[in-house]
């Protein structure tokens, strides 16, 4: 290892090979603070050539590595394991925006760029980079790409995969694949780009990307609808999509219990309705015409929904401040839930047509497995993606509740599978769900994944133990 | 071979193993009639189980196979070569729509479904399946997926890749990968779907897919703008996208020479302007509000473009019939060009911001290489995709002109590469461009492609000689 690190110092300069325990600590623990791994060193390259140099050394010395961006992942994909033989490769110094081409609607960025910075650079050119998620102030685009991150803009703009036109990747052999052409159409062979996107660093290291930009909408208007059931929320979704088409850019479900938690823990948050209702939907409309036009469409949709008895009540935000306040209800749910003690998260997706049935049945199954626990159900209903989280019964100790985690996961994920869903809609597999997925993914798919992993990374050095066990 | 064919008959029934020369002929020649391959048999399975049975036999007897759908490809990807040892696997009997789920906005179809049939099934449920291309009356969705077909809806809806949520594939070992969950979000491992999409049958055989559906727009309005240069067309594109956002669903460039050819060979086609102009753009707007609304937006865009001197003139179609007539100008170009003798086609893409410069420079280079030849330049400008075709000088013999094909291709494709473009935007590589691509794709990419091919198809039985030589 010392010889390897010496060679790394020759590539990076000694100051960018961190080995002191104090320097390492920030890189070894996951965001939720649940797991701390071990590592001999953190390597901090400044450019793609240095990454290639390091990966050649890893290959030569057979040293495994864990690529890391903002380390905001939720499935232990970006921290090393307990073996202590894998180095951490931090991409955060590679944070240049290489180019913006507003006419081609593209931007070339390095992997370590913070998502929010990319959004701002796009806005400066009167363009929109639509990827948006809670961690945007600290997550990096390399991590977003490696996990194919979702977020709140998927309904209209797709996952990160759909927002990328080209990649630069360093392979497990330390070779640079530079495929940074900003083309909408290019049918010249296998889709290597999409193979590296979502592979969580297990097939190679993404060092740069060409991203898609969009025209900025002229107006964004938000509304909150109150209704009785998830089934009604789905009726509202059909109604809104039919009327708004691609202008409907968000459709988020929140149960009343979610909002009650928010009001309990965030004293400045106010319920916009006189009484509470069992379910709420946050809708966002992005209009290329005007705010008045957007508002008129929302009024029509809401009028129709009230008339058809789909919703009980609704408010349309009258200002940016009101829009923001409605979004904060949605965004504060996770934090409010954290205040209620440790909770068990499920990041799942279900075919949209079956979600209402899924919630009804699975709520019962969870209550049977863990009586009196509290369902915190919310999420990107328009994408079929729920954060189907479970909080402990009032007064239960964290440790007692977490002891039930495996049993609750099994109930929820078996139900997801029965409904043809996915046990990881937007967070990835990492180390956390690597074993669990083998229960739900077919042997043929697992074999194909393993075949690809073995072919591209024969010594199993790229983020070993994540996504798939070889 | 006879023992193999006997085993195939046991799987399919004798009547679906075609071996008579007369029965085979329709399967061996490509659509443009330029190439006829050799094959001992055409196999016509009726379901996925039979495909798996056949691929197991191919693996066992080491018999190569060429998957074929509607055989409408333009790059010799779906016909066998001259060696005569590969069987043709026709998917055309597998043409069932397995399910439509209008609430989930998905449709499950078998590979042999004709594209137009899928469009019609979607429309019957008041949904849109937006893939649309010239061959839609005879091409199959399996072929569309295997080539990641483009077409006229890419600007808004993306390539075929973006329209697919899940696949059923039979691997080279004859195993069935069934991954037909109709989910918008599913981050549980490597993106196998996108690896098979666009692989032109060289990694496995696509037997079924889950497709994305969209709400039907309430109105579609078409306009034709007349202008001076491709640079102005790009200015118009920015203006229209800024104002229309995702409602702009087509943006097609046509040079005056293209339309002159149409008027020459289609007597019923009329020029909608009093005089001719150097360039034309066909725009289509899909509106979820009303025809009046769409028309008002177009009037605003066109008014602004006239005021800014970007365009010289424009017409907005006043009826469906007029819309259709404008589209026919665009759609008849290929046929009109065919009447002018053999031509040399280039299906290229360029970063949109560089297209005007590309056309200007490359036109000159082509004239140097082949004096007096005529440029037939048109295509999906909004996607950066041009059909940059070359017709012979008036009076030149076909054979004399085709003798210059390699030289002209080299000039055009080298220029494409210099501009950071692609030499196959939407048609794929097949056998036609397999060698040529090695000049432009990096050795690292070619090596990765070969590694994947070898890993998934170690005996090189899946459409051998297409896409990549192993």
TrEMBL record, chains A, B:
Pfam families noted in UniProt = FAD-oxidase_C (PF02913), FAD_binding_4 (PF01565)
InterPro entries cross-referenced by the UniProt entry: FAD-bd_oxidored_4_C, FAD-bd_PCMH, FAD-bd_PCMH-like_sf, FAD-bd_PCMH_sub1, FAD-bd_PCMH_sub2, FAD-linked_Oxase-like_C, FAD-oxidored/transferase_4, Oxid_FAD_bind_N
Keyword Flavoprotein recorded: yes
Where in the numbering of this chain does the FAD-binding PCMH-type domain appear? Answer: 35-216
Keyword annotations for this protein? Answer: FAD, Flavoprotein
Record keyword Flavoprotein present: yes
Q: The organism sits in which domain of life?
A: Bacteria
Family according to the record: Belongs to the FAD-binding oxidoreductase/transferase type 4 family.
Quote the protein name from its UniProt record.
FAD-binding oxidoreductase
- Say which species the protein is native to: Herbaspirillum lusitanum
What high-level taxonomic lineage is stated for the organism?
Bacteria, Pseudomonadati, Pseudomonadota, Betaproteobacteria, Burkholderiales
């Amino acid at each position: 290892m010392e010889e390897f690190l010496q060679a790394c110092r020759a590539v990076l300069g000694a100051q960018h090979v961190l080995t002191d325990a104090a320097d390492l600590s920030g890189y070894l623990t996951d965001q939720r603070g649940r797991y701390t791994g071990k590592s001999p060193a953190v390597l901090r390259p400044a450019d793609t050539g240095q990454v290639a140099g390091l990966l050649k050394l890893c290959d030569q010395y057979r040293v495994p590595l864990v690529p890391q961006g903002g380390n905001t992942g939720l499935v232990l994909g970006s921290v090393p394991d307990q073996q202590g033989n894998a180095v951490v490769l931090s991409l955060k110094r590679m944070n240049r925006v290489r180019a913006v081409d507003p006419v081609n609607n593209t931007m070339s960025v390095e992997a370590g760029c913070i998502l929010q910075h990319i959004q701002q650079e796009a806005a400066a050119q009167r363009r929109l980079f639509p990827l948006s998620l809670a961690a945007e102030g600290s997550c990096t685009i390399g991590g977003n790409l490696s996990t194919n991150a979702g977020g709140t803009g998927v309904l209209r703009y797709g996952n990160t995969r759909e927002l990328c036109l080209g990649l630069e990747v360093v392979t497990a052999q330390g070779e640079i694949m530079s495929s940074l052409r900003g083309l909408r159409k290019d049918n010249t062979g296998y889709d290597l780009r999409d193979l590296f996107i979502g592979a969580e660093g297990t097939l190679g290291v993404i060092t740069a990307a060409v991203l898609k930009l969009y025209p900025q909408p002229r107006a964004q208007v938000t509304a909150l609808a109150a209704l009785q059931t998830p089934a009604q929320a789905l009726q509202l979704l059909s109604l809104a999509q039919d009327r708004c088409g691609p202008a409907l850019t968000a459709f988020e479900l929140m149960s009343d219990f979610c909002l009650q938690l928010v009001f309990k823990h965030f004293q400045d948050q106010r319920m916009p309705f006189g009484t509470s209702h069992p379910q709420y939907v946050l809708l966002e409309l992005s209009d290329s015409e005007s705010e008045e036009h957007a508002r008129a469409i929302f009024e029509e949709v809401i009028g129709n929904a009230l008339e058809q008895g789909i919703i009980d009540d609704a408010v349309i935000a009258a200002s940016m401040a009101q829009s923001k306040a409605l979004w904060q209800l949605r965004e504060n749910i996770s934090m409010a839930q954290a205040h209620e003690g440790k909770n068990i998260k499920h990041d799942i997706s279900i075919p949209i047509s079956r979600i209402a049935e899924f919630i009804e049945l699975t709520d019962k199954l969870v209550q049977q497995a863990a009586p009196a626990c509290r369902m915190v159900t919310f999420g990107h209903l328009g994408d079929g993606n729920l954060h189907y989280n479970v909080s402990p019964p009032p007064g239960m100790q964290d440790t007692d509740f977490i002891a039930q985690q495996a049993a609750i996961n099994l109930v929820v994920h078996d139900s997801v599978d029965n409904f043809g869903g996915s046990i990881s809609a937007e967070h990835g597999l990492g180390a956390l769900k690597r074993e669990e997925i083998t229960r739900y993914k077919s042997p043929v798919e697992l074999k194909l994944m393993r075949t690809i992993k073995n072919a591209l990374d024969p010594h199993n050095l790229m983020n070993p133990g994540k996504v798939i066990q070889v």
